[in-house]
């Protein structure tokens, strides 16, 4: 009962920290909102097992280092001679908090130890404040976007853990949101909202089916859940005509032509993630339709397989 009250209070403080951050008028209040956000998230996720304690301690250390860097930038902001350095420190601290490349080494360890509810907060709600602060800075993130988009996509290969796949997929989506921000566009919040909605549905399905690995996809017996899983996988990979595709399409429509180099690599990374998501569905489709051993089932199987292979190339259109 006491732990429930701690979780309720922590969730309330978590929401309060976000509201407080958006209504803050100076950098010191931004720092306070970050500290409230970090502590409330840790208390909400705390569980009495070694894996949870170790991962949350690692999360606390990383966030504390980033907060100290951010606090140093606040002190330097009083001196106009250090304005450029101040901008770099703010950007670096927020990139570290979010886990952008090259600060991504801790993401999988922390995310893997969280239950699905905490994982949702970690992959969506916890990104709001750092992204909001980044949107207020003036810094060139082009190299960070390129590295994050490509490295996150390659890290998804040979992963069987759904949490790790979702973590690296989230990292890839973060590169898109950062790309939106450098155009001084507030659509990053819309992108994050759409991504959070898709992720919440995906996690609800995982909670119902108790699925933690891509190998368990093979044992999906309920047709409705199977259809929902396929649709959600397509959404997460950003394939048309689903919501995940239109958020990226909106991003490209609002970008300028001189960013074609970054757009190309973002598209390539999206194709890689699309391939990984669709290849995860291959065992489910083959098991469901080939086991019936009928020409119609085999024809339908090859039709679906062809669709899965060709659909990612539609992203180039």
Question: Which secondary structure elements does this structure contain, and how are they paired or packed?
Answer:
Blueprint: H1 2-23, H2 27-45, H3 50-76, H4 83-98, H5 107-112, H6 116-123, H7 128-134, H8 142-155, H9 162-181, H10 187-209, H11 223-237, H12 243-253, H13 260-290, H14 295-310
Write structural notes for this entry.
The structure is a single chain. The protein is an all-alpha fold. It has one domain. 74% of the residues lie in helices and 0% in strands. It has 14 helices and no strands. α1 (2-23) packs antiparallel against α2 and α9 runs antiparallel to α13 (260-290). The chain is globular. Pfam families: Proton_antipo_M. It catalyses: a ubiquinone + NADH + 5 H(+)(in) = a ubiquinol + NAD(+) + 4 H(+)(out).
Order of helices and strands: HHHHHHHHHHHHHH
Q: Name the quaternary structure.
A: single chain
The radius of gyration computed from the alpha-carbon positions, rounded to a whole number of angstroms, is: 21 Å
Return the structural class: mainly alpha
Main location: mitochondrion
Family: Belongs to the complex I subunit 2 family.
Protein name: NADH-ubiquinone oxidoreductase chain 2
Organism: Hypoaspis linteyini
Features:
317 residues; mainly alpha; 74% helix; transport; mitochondrion inner membrane; electron transport
Short description:
The protein has one domain. The chain is 74% helix and 0% strand.
């Amino acid at each position: 009962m006491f732990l429930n009250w701690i979780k309720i209070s922590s969730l309330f403080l978590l929401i309060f920290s976000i509201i407080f951050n958006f209504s803050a008028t100076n950098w010191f209040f931004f720092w306070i909102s970050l500290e409230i956000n970090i502590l409330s998230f840790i208390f909400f996720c705390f569980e009495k097992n070694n894996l949870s304690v170790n991962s949350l301690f690692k999360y606390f250390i990383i966030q504390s280092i980033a907060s100290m860097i951010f606090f140093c930038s606040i002190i330097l902001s009083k001196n106009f001679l250090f304005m450029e350095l101040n901008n770099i420190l703010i950007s670096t601290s927020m990139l570290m908090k979010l886990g952008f490349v090259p600060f991504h080494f801790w993401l999988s360890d922390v995310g893997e130890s969280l239950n699905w509810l905490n994982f949702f907060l970690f992959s969506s709600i916890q990104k709001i404040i750092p992204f909001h602060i980044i949107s207020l800075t003036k810094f060139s993130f082009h190299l960070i976007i390129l590295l994050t988009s490509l490295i996150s996509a390659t890290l998804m290969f040979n992963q069987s853990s759904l949490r790790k796949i979702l973590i690296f997929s989230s990292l890839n989506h973060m590169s898109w949101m950062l790309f939106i921000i450098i155009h001084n566009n507030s659509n990053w919040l819309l992108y994050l909202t759409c991504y959070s909605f898709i992720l919440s549905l995906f996690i609800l399905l995982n909670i119902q089916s108790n699925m933690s690995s891509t190998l368990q996809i093979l044992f999906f017996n309920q047709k409705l859940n199977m259809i929902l899983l396929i649709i959600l996988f397509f959404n997460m990979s950003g394939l048309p005509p689903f919501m995940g595709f239109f958020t990226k399409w909106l991003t490209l429509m609002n970008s300028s032509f001189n960013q074609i180099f970054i757009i190309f690599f973002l598209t390539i990374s999206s194709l890689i993630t699309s391939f990984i998501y669709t290849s995860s569905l291959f065992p489910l489709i083959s098991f469901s339709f080939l086991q019936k051993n009928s020409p119609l089932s085999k024809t339908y199987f090859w039709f679906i397989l062809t669709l899965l292979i060709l659909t990612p190339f539609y992203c180039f259109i």
